[in-house]
Specification:
Length: about 400
Amino acid sequence: MEDRWGRVAEDGTVYVRTGDGERAVGQWPDSDPAEALAFYKGRYEALHLEVELLEQRVRAGTLSPDDARTSVKQVRGSIAEAQVVGDLAGLSSRLDVLNLTIAERRQHRKVERARKVEDATAEKERIAAEAERLAQGNDWRGGANKLRDLLDAWKQLPRIDRKADDALWRQFSSARSTYTRRRKAHFAELDERRESARVVKTKLAAEAEELGGSKDWGPTTGKYRDLMRRWKEAGPAPKDVEDELWTRFRGAQDTFFTARDAVTAERDREFAANAEKKQALLAQAEALLPVGDVKTARESFREISQRWDAAGKVPREQMKDLEGRMRKVETTIRGIEDDQWRRSNPEARARAADTVAQLESSIQDLQDKHDKAAAAGDTKKVSEHAAAIEARKSWLTEAQKALTDFSG
């Protein structure tokens, strides 16, 4: 009995047809040939399924190219000696196609691997350069976290060419070491400065406490201002003592300034009351203007001025206005007094009368000379004497006015 892929000989030998002819795959004596063919075809189906499963795994990418090629080689060996009846040439052809697929995948993986190596190289170069940038910076808080993130990113990358990978790692590691060394030095210096600040601020807190009970408001306020300047210049102390020292320092200040402000508030109330008194006195003083009887005005102003001085200090913002208005009244009264004295001064009146007499005599003398020159026909002298007479007449007019003022 036979079919397309095999036959059963009369002696029960089962043959499978191949491209080279046929070969025996087994014996099935004393049995039904159809049953024999069915048995060996069933075994072929198992081999066929194995090829299909291999195809699926290769196409799905679950096998590496090397593992896939090994599996193909093993299956091909099984086909060569397989005790089956079926299309063995077809299975071999499918394995040939599968080898081509594997070769393509191998090439693809090679290209992909090269791309990943290239990307990894670029990323590692970037990480190393970024680490070097951080190593030269002063970001002592965030820099450590950033370098830690860079290390995590490095670990996720595949290895590249060993020589290049080692060189980049040394670059990256060196940058991390440089940063760590500089960071430690920075914080050591910071700790030293904070310890120095602790010593200074402890002293400043003690000085502030000594001044807390002072009643010397002005100078002590200046001293506290200087203490605050020195406190700021000292910089921060260690965190565990900074708040404690500040509480002491600020508490001493509060004690002093609370007492000073209480005194200042009382003084402000006193000054405000004084200002009200001076406003009333100012109204009385300004009522003296315009001046009628200068003697009465002077005596009244003197009495108001005495009460003004006794009223005491006023708020700084009111002082200029109040003093200015009071001074204006005083200046007005004094000006009128001075004018009256000037008008009644006998010595000044005598000087004015003498000036008028001298000018009148000078004018008469010049007039006589003028007349003589005219009689003599001396026109030059006539002109000179006429100009001199005219000038002295204008002087005489002013002198007579001054004398008239004294007479008034």
